[in-house]
Amino acid sequence: MKSLTRHTSILLAATLLSAASTTQAAPAGDAAVTAAPARGATMGAVERNLGKPAQVLPAVGAPPITRWVYPAFTVYFEHQYVIHSVIPAAPGPAAGP
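The chain above was modelled as a monomer; its predicted structure follows.
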């Protein structure tokens, strides 16, 4: 079981790193950036400030990492605390033949 937990944690870490590396910086003053919760905020504070998320994904791994998806960003929690907020990258131009 420890091996499964370790592999799950490694997979989750790789996913978080991948998501962080594919995000793009938003311009200063972007509403999504100002609305995204700061690291260390509690789940309760995030819900009070932003309302209910569009989607809540269940906790995965050890320590448990939970994702709350809002329209403009995704918030990652470890236990009850924000560890990261990710703004998805804008879609690039369509690839031609």
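The first strand starts at residue 55 and ends at 60.
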